[in-house]
Amino acid sequence: MRPTGSSHLGHLVGAYRNWVAMQDEFDAFYSIVDWHALTTDYRDTSALRRNTLDIAADWLAVGLDPTRCTLFVQSQVPEHAELHLLLSMVVPLGWLERVPTYKDLLRELRERDLHTYGFLGYPVLQAADILIYDAAVVPVGEDQSPHIELTREIARRFNGIFGRVLSEPAVRLTASPRLPGTDGRKMSKSFGNTIGLAEDEKTVRSKLRTMKTDPARKRLKDPGDPAKCPVFDLHRIFSDEETRQWAAAGCRSAGIGCIQCKNALADHLVGEIGPIAERRREYEKRPDDVRDVLDAGRKVAAEAASATMERVRAAVRLPGAGALGDAPALRSATPATG
Ligand code: SF4
Questions:
Q1: How far is the CA of 258 from the centre of ligand 1 (A)?
Q2: Residue 275 pLDDT exceeds 90
Q3: Shortest-distance atom of ligand 1 to CA 211
C-alpha cells in the first residue's frame, strides 16, 4: 500500500479485513511501498515519512499483528530496487504502455508530470515487490489483477532467459463491495468524501448525517428505494440482517426517516471502527513502538529478499556481494595484429 495518508472505510472493506484473515492462513508480508508513492508524487516528499508511520499505525490498529505477519517499508529493503533493475532489462516497452491503469492515470492526473521513466516502470517495481518474496498468492481487487498477470508474464520471460529462478504468483481476488463516500461517489481521498478509520464517533455520526440519500425521499412521507441509496450500501456492509430489513422496509413504506436510518447505520459503523480508532490513538502516543515493528519487519523481509537476490544474481551470472572468485580465468592477451 502506498503511504498517501490515513486509511478510511474503503481500505478497511477493500483490503484490511481480508489481510487480517490472511495473516493466519499464510506467511504474509505487507509492505508500505514508499517508492511507489514517488512514481506519482516526486516533487513534494515532505509528508512521506509521516504518512508511512500513519499507515503502519492504521495497520496495527485494524488488527495486523506483527507476531503473525511481516510489516515493513519497501525502501528499507533495497533488494526490491535491484530486482526491479534486472527485471527492467527484459520487459518490453510495449507491455508497460499497454497496462490499463497507465493510460487511465495519465488522463486522470493531468496536473502531475507522469511522463517519467519511474511512472512507466511502476508495474515492474510492483512485480519485483512480489517476486522477491516468492509470493504464492497476492490479494488484490479486480482492477489490480492485470498487474498480477503482468507480474506472471515478467517472471516467465525472466525464467525463459535465465532459467527457473522466479515463482509465478496466483491472484487472490478480494471481494470489494461498492463503498460509496458521503457524496454518493466512490469513497476516495481525492473526492474528499471519506470516513476515516481514526475519526471519533462525533465526526463519524456528523458525516453520516450529511450523507446523500435516495433523491426520491424529499419529504418524510415520500417512499424511497434502498437500491438507489448510498446509505443503504453502507448498511449492506456494516449492519446486521435485522437492521437491514428494518431499514429497507421502513424506506419503501416511508415508515422511517432518513435520520433514523442513518442513526442505526452509525451505531453499527461506530461499533466496528470505534475500537480501531481507540487502538489508533494508543499507537499515536507510542510512535517508537510503531517504528520498532517496522524495523523488526525490515529484518525478516531483508532476509527473504536477499536469499532471492542471491539466486537471481547467480542466474544472471552477476558476482553479487562477494568477489569474482568463481569467475573464469582472464582471457589471455593476444598480440595486436595487422
Ligand atoms: Fe436511504 Fe435509509 Fe433514507 Fe431510505 S430511509 S433513502 S435507505 S437513508
A1: 5
A2: yes
A3: 8
The set of cell numbers assigned to 82 is 535491484
Ligand 1 binding pocket mutation candidate from 207, 208, 232, 239 (most atoms within 8 A of CB):
232
Q: How far is the CA of 188 from the centre of ligand 1 (A)?
A: 22
CATH number at residue 260: 1.10.240.10
Atom of ligand 1 minimally distant from the CA of 225: 4
Q: Are strands 29-32 and 70-73 parallel, antiparallel or unpaired?
A: parallel
Q: How far is the CA of 219 from the centre of ligand 1 (A)?
A: 11
Domain residues for the domain of 83 are 9-179+287-320
- Cell numbers standing for residue 267: 451505531
Which position has the grid cell 476516495? Answer: 188
pTM over 0.85: yes
Q: Is the same domain home to 204 and 133?
A: no
Condensed to tens digits (0 to 9), the pLDDT of residues 131-172 reads: 999 999 999 888 788 889 999 999 999 999 999 999 999 998
| Range with lowest mean pLDDT among 23-27, 119-123, 229-233, 334-338 | 334-338
Between CA 330 and CA 127 the distance in angstroms is 36
CA–centroid distance, 213 to ligand 1, in Å, is 6
Separation of CA 212 from chain center: 27
Using a 6 Å CB cutoff, which residues line ligand 1?
Answer: 213-214, 217, 224, 226, 229, 231-232, 247, 251, 256, 258, 261-262
User: pLDDT by residue (tens digit) across 189-225?
Assistant: 878 899 999 999 999 999 999 999 999 998 889 999 9
CB-based contacts of 272, cutoff 8 Å, min separation 6: 238
Looking at the structure, tell me whether residues 104 and 14 fall in a common domain.
yes
